[in-house]
Amino acid sequence: MIVKREANPVKERPEESGFTLVEILIATLISAVVMSAVYTTYVSQQKSYVIQDQVAMMQQNLRNSIYSLEQEIRMAGYDPTGGANAGLVTKNSAEISFTMDLNGDRDTSDTNENITFTLASGVLRRKPSTAASAQAVAENIDALNFVYLDQDGAPTADASKVRAIQVMVLARTAKPDFGFTNNEEYVNQQPTSSSSFYKYTAPGDHYRRNALCVEIKCRNLGL
Known about the structure:
Blueprint lengths: L20 H53 L14 E4 L3 E5 L14 E7 L2 E6 L6 E4 L2 E9 L14 E9 L12 E3 L11 E3 L7 E9 L6
Antiparallel strand pairs: 1-2, 2-3, 3-4, 4-5, 6-7, 7-10, 8-9
């Protein structure tokens, strides 16, 4: 008796799932576009942050400069005994020197009683007469301007008539922003004479700048 064996049927392989080359290329292209957009946004935000940080530092530097000038110029001529002959020593548009008798010993030769403020190589400097060298108050300062005013608020060249001093400080950022060009003019609020205003024109560079003007009442002058 012959037994016939049934042949094993050939099983068909299931279709393999996956991505075609075209699909992979399309996905890669989309990913590249998305990553490029993300990177561009990141770079833009980073640049904006750096600029804002530089401007904030400049503003703080400017405020500190004005504060230092205000605190000391306000004391110019302080002379509680009336025997120290304290007052303005040098008064021009770019530099100021003044004396004060802080301890009431009838002279102005003690520490911090004879002060000069000036600008040199972009640095606002303060020099007491008793110091060997000037002290740096603030860096990245492009302009310093003084206007001397009488009791009516008019500019005066007579030191005995000075009752207030307008101070203008122009500060710049520590680093340039190469996406920005500065051609602006910065003008003080008060003319140095009847018709002449101090003016600083930016040289077309890439530094951001800001100016601050204050009028300081010199309560001890003219007493």
